[in-house]
């Protein structure tokens, strides 16, 4: 076991030595170079800020333009929609007025027919009443005539000589 452990340590030492050799050491940077690099980075940052400000301004302008264009389009669509709604409303109102006129005509015609039917019904009832009255008058006249005829018949029979006498 010691042999295996010593072999693993020896192999890992050789492997780690090669990796350590592969790393390069960086040259020393002076303070002046660091300050110049920082100044350059700050200048780049300022330019980036300026570019971002111009981009921000142009984006804000574009957004405002798009917003105004969108508002104009919405207003145009709103006016067109309101016009269509008003047209539909006037069309529907005119149709309702036509239907109302038709119902008025229908009501007038129906009233006329009902009136004519009631007048005819009244004439028929009056004629039946008159016919019934005439019939009762005729019956009374006939009854009185029958009574008179029977009275006259009885008188004639009284004035006739008995049957075996003549």
Characterization of the model:
The protein has 166 residues and is mainly α. The chain has one domain. Helix content is 90%, strand content 0%. The protein is built from two helices and no strands. The protein has helices spanning 2-22, 31-159. It starts with a helix and ends in a 7-residue tail after the last helix. The model has no long low-confidence stretch (mean pLDDT 85).
Highlighted features:
2 helices, mainly alpha, rod-shaped, 166 residues, single chain
In short:
Helices cover 90% and strands 0% of the residues.
How would the blueprint of this fold be written?
Layout: H1 2-22, H2 31-159
The structural class is: mainly alpha
User: Distance N terminus to C terminus?
Assistant: 191 Å
Shape: rod-shaped
Rounded average pLDDT = 85
What fraction of the residues are assigned to beta strands by DSSP? under 5%
**Main beta sheet: strand number and arrangement?**
none
Helix and strand pattern: HH
Radius of gyration: 65 Å
């Amino acid at each position: 076991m010691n042999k295996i452990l010593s072999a693993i340590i020896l192999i890992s030492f050789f492997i780690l030595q090669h990796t350590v050799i592969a790393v390069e050491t960086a040259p020393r940077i002076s303070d002046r170079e660091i300050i110049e690099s920082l100044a350059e980075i700050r200048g780049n940052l300022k330019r980036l800020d300026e570019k971002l400000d111009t981009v921000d301004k142009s984006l804000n302008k574009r957004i405002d333009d798009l917003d105004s264009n969108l508002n104009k389009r919405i207003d145009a669509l709103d006016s067109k929609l309101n016009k269509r709604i008003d047209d539909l409303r006037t069309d529907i109102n005119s149709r309702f007025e036509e239907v109302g006129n038709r119902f008025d005509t229908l009501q007038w015609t129906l009233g006329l027919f009902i009136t004519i039917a009631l007048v005819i019904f009244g004439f028929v009832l009056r004629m039946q009443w008159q016919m019934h009255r005439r019939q009762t008058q005729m019956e009374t006249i006939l009854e009185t005539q029958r009574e008179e005829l029977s009275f006259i018949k009885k008188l004639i029979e009284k004035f006739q000589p008995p049957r075996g006498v003549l």
